[in-house]
Every structure is written in C-alpha cells, then in structure tokens.
Amino acid sequence: MLGLPKTLVLTVGQGIPHVLLGILGLAYAPAGHAGVLIPSAMIAVSTIGGWFFLRDRPEKAVLIGIFIIMVGATLSGWQSMSESGGQAWLGDLLFIAAGALWGIYTIASRAWDVDAFQATALVSVISMLLYLPLYFIWGTPGILSAPVSEIVFQSLFQGVFAAILALLFYTKAVTVLGATRGSIFGGLVPCIASVLAIFVLSEVPSLIEVAGMVLASGGMIYIFGFRK
C-alpha cells in the first residue's frame, strides 16, 4: 500500500503539476518543441536516475539505442525546432521540467514496484481533487458553456485515453521492463505525432523528419535485441 508521501511524488511526476508545466510551455513555444523535449528529458532523467538510484546500469547497446532514439526524436521535430524565436526558450525550459517530472515518476514507480492500476487511480483522483477547486475559483470554466459533443470527445480523448490508459500502460511497462527500457517508448512521441499529422492535418513530413522517424524506430528495435 502506497503511503501519502509516495502518492504525492507519483502525482507530481505524472499528475497535474506535470501537465500544467507542459501546458504553460505551449504558451511560449510550439507543440513540436514539446514533442521532442519532454520525452527526451524523461529518457535522460530515467536513464541517469535508474543508474544511480536503482543500480540499473544500462548496457552499452541500450545507451547506443537511446542515443539513436533521441537523435531521431530531434530530427522528427526539426522543422518546428528551427522555426521558433522570441520566448521559445522559456517554453523549452518548462518542457524540460515536465519531462524531468515524468522521469522522476518512472524511477519512483520502478523503485517502489507500484501496481499500475493503483498508481493510475491515485494519480488521476488526486490530480482532480487538486485542480478542480483552482479551476472553478480562479479559472474560466468554459466547460459550462461548451457543446456536449465537445465535452464527450475531450472526456474520452483526454480523460480516458491520454490520462488513464496511457498512464496505466506506461506504468505497467516500467514495472516489467525497468526504468530505462520502459522510458524509451517516449522517444516515439514525435514520430507518432508526425504520422498522425499526415492523416489528421494533411501535413506531409520532410525528408529530415522521415529520417528521424526511421532512426527512432531503429533505435528501439536495436535496444530490444532485434540486432545481429
């Protein structure tokens, strides 16, 4: 049974603080930056933290694979990263902080061998209890005037898929594979975003972005042993 301190650490790592940092970052930097920096920071923190705190020293092949994945992730978001200015650096710092919190969650969930269902339930409920009062007191509750169809869609997409199922599957992967190997799936975030953009936004990726997707996928295949 997780106590309050451990529950709060998990909530900070993957609950409302993590989410708010990412959202605040979007006010200063493009979403493409978030797709690269958040998972990259998470992988770095998970790998280094797992090495020092969990004595989970990654093999040479894993380090090589992680490097390939991070290069691929950077190339996948290259266009967005190269077309920004102004206060984008502030948004980038917020994205890195969000990724670091994600990495802390990864290390903690592995160190404490948390149950995926329990962790998901606790993080989701506590985040709701912390955020709802702030939202209704100081925010602008657009939910009260939003169309029912939009509320249903966002509830399913953000609430069920992004908040619950994604966290559940990720936590389970970390407990089974370990902090380092479990975290590398984050490197596919910009790649998957680029693929979805083709069908949803009719945005065709550049050759550099395609190369990044291939590299990130190849790095993951390399790590999981499908190499000669």
From TrEMBL:
UniProt keyword terms in alphabetical order: Cell membrane, Membrane, Transmembrane, Transmembrane helix
Pfam families according to UniProt: EamA
Domain EamA: 90-224
Subcellular location: Cell membrane
Keyword Cell membrane: yes
Major localisation: membrane
Span of the signal peptide: none
Membrane-traversing stretches: 7-28, 34-54, 61-81, 87-107, 119-139, 151-170, 182-201, 207-226
Topology with respect to the bilayer: Multi-pass membrane protein
GO-annotated cellular components: plasma membrane
Superkingdom of origin: Bacteria
Protein name (database record): EamA domain-containing protein
Species of the source: Pseudomonas veronii 1YdBTEX2
Lineage: Bacteria, Pseudomonadati, Pseudomonadota, Gammaproteobacteria, Pseudomonadales
